[in-house]
Structures are given as C-alpha cells and as structure tokens.
Amino acid sequence: MSVAVPQELFAHVADGVDLCYQTFGSPDGDPLLLVMGLGGPMTWWDERLCGMLADAGFHVIRFDNRDIGRSSRLDGPVSMGRLARAFLGLKVRTTYTLDDMAADAIGLLDHLGIEAAHVWGVSMGGMIAQTMAVTHPERVLSLTSMMSTTGARSVGYQNPSLLPIFLTRSGDREGYVDASVRTWKIIGSPAYPSDEQDVRRRAEETYDRGISPRGTGRQILAVLTQPNRTRDLARVSVPTLVVHGLADKMVHVSGGRATSLAVPRSELLLIDGLGHDIPEGLWPTLVSAVRRNADRAS
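Given the sequence above, the corresponding structure tokens read:
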C-alpha cells in the first residue's frame, strides 16, 4: 500500500511542551488518536498501518510524546540509582508523570478542535490511554489498550534485566541501529518475525528524528512511579478492547488480563506468538478489532 506522508505539524499543549504530530485520512472520519510506547516516536506507527486505519473510516492522529522525536525535550535528573529505587517501589522525584503525558494528549485534541476521540495506545501508550479514560472520560469515545498493564506491580511485570537496553548509550547512528536490532530480536514476536532490514530502516529513521537516552529515562521514571489504576478502571464505561501477546517478554500477559478484568464489559484479545511489537502480519486483525470496538461506541 502506498501512503502519502502528511506534513508534520506542531501543537503547544503545556508549558514548555510542544508535540509534533501528523494526521491521515479525512477529517470527517472518526478521530483515532494513536499513542506510542516508551522511547518510541510516532513513526513507530507505520504509515501503511495508518493508511489501513484511514481506509477503515478513521481520521488518524499520530504524535511524538514529550522527550522523543521532534516533540519538546525536558530537563530532569536520571540515574541508574534513581531508576533502581523507583523499580523497587521507593519514592523518587520525577520530572513528570503519566498524568502529565495524558494531559499532553488531551491538549493535542484541544489543538485539533476534537471534543472526543477513539484512543489506541501500546505499551506505555496503553498506560497513557488508560489514564486518559480515567481522568478525562468525556474525551475518550473508545479505548484500545495493547501490550500494557494497570500499574499494579503484581501484574504486567518485566524482567529487570531488560531495563538497561533502553538506557544504553549506543553512541553513533550505527551503534544505535545495531542495538535496536538486538533489542527487537529479544522482545519481538516469535510467530511474526520482523525482517532485519525493516528493523534497521526504522531504527535509522528513529535516530535521525532525534533520540534522547535521558528523555527515555524520564519516561521510564513516569512508568515506574505510575499509580495502580485497577479501581479507577472499574469506572471506565466506554467500549474497551485489550490486546496482548502470549509471547510478550516486556509486559507479561498478566497485565493485559488484569486490564480486561478491571474494565467492565471489555473485550480481551490474546494472540499466540505475539511479542512486544505490532507485526505487519497482524495489521488486518488489529484494524478490524479496533474498528469493531469503535463501532460499539455508536
């Protein structure tokens, strides 16, 4: 599928925070906000997937979260000691929270003049999407939470040995690309393996858009210090789809199961062989599921 790449635009959403964003499809379509995960720019939502969603009747919005890509970079201390204390559940000071990142997304909708949107978030983006549904329920038409969790420490856990892969200073462009290939071999989908050249191309694009190990560290702190949303999710009344891979090494499938259990009348879609990515082989399945969930809102 050939997709015309739209212009990158900017929205001022908070003091010191401008978000870079793009839209796909007709503005008359159903607004769908795509929220990416930890350290991932909006380009990790593949243009062809965005095109498929537009063809399914959505007005698609993708954006760079704060501290990644071409959105604003913030200042704030990050250290392995601080991250370790947060991982252990000890109180630490953070530059911002997931509530702040959810408010960024609401600010983007304000900028676009959109009263309410369907929201699809993956990984950390799923946590942000859940937070949007909890803190701004009137702005969320339907919720799709993929490879994410509730914030409860007993579910959706990851092996702490995976944490350093997001903080490794890989140096130049070639080092970053090589590190990305190694990472996706570890956390990707065993049943839907990615072509290494595609992974390298995406990593090159990510590096060229702008990476920030310290920014990723600040995002990790926001994730590690998030509250347990289980009780709040019980108040979510919009149609909710929870998607999780049974082979996810980054966020254990218990996180998806707990999310679906917490949200009344949610749909749980567990996929065998799916890891912590959005493989092309599953795009038709995911587009159909997100469309079906959105249609429940009407």
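The first strand starts at residue 9 and ends at 14. Try to locate this feature in the token string yourself.
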